[in-house]
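Dear colleague,

Thank you for sharing your sequence with our group. We've completed the structure prediction you requested, and as agreed, I am returning the results in plain text so they can be pasted directly into your records. Please verify that the sequence below matches your submission; if there's any discrepancy, let me know and we will rerun it promptly.
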Amino acid sequence: MSAHYCEHETPSPHQIGNLARYRKVLWIALGVNLAMFIVEIVVGLAAESLSLQADAIDFASDALNYGVSLAILTSALSWRSYAAIGKAISMIAFGLFILGQALWAVWQGSVPDAAAMGAVAALALVANVSVAWVLYAFREGDANMRSVWLCSRNDAIGNLAVIAAAVGVFGTSRAWPDLAVASLMAALALSSGWTVLRQARSEMRGKAATDLGTMQTKNTMDQGLQQAAYKTLRTQAIKCTNLPEKWQLLQAAHIVGQCFFWLHIDSHIKMLKLALRTRDWHEAVGQIFRLSLVPFGHLLGGLPIGNPGTADVSAFSTPEIPHSLRKLITNARMLVE
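Please find the predicted structure tokens below.
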């Protein structure tokens, strides 16, 4: 289903224009999707059509998504990216739910009402084409705006598929066209959800790069410099005999390496070892807690950029990087450039 996803070069997500118009369009989209959810869920249950029910659940998800988009429209990019991650997870959950329902219906389902399927799908198509048309101008932008565009576009594609399923059910008097289309819609939801999730996480990493004053991009050389700087700070920390300075070097290493999963893990392991060796039990407990959070932070894109990684600072805060740590980071970069 990835063929339905159009590749574009996305402009800078930090610049979003026409906010007043975009907000108005979102209210229209929310109302249309909520109304169509009610229509499709009622008719889908009455007609025993899984593809209509799938489309109804998708309408409900989209209505919620538009509401969330309105709520965080003027928020910082990081919060918009968090919202996009939540919406991506809902799209993936929707896809998995429908696939499960389709498997169950293979043995337990009955033949749906083809006429009801076709009529409601045609109405839904008109609604979604209208929404997709007004959202077309906003198809490029940050992950949140992009996910809104993908939702409406995918719905229009799904409506055409439901109409095709209705024709198939009418022609064969069997349920398999309905089940096949429901499965395809679920696959599209999984594909689009994964696409939005990847872009949102990319934006979070881009923000991390900006906050650290570096070019943390997909460029292999840039990533290599970051990793080399981390290793330099790590080596300096190992060789350092002054305990306060050793902790500062580890904190600087954590800030530089936290965008990379394994370096992030390694920095906390080094801190945990030092805490255990010095019998700093408060710090040791804090490091164990932070180690457990690392996978979730990278999966959801919720890394607290600039956090030094030690127990004296909240694991969820994003404080300004102290001058002393910035100096250590700058010196390490100069050594590897």
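Summary note from our side: Residues 213-336 form one domain.

Kind regards,
the structure core
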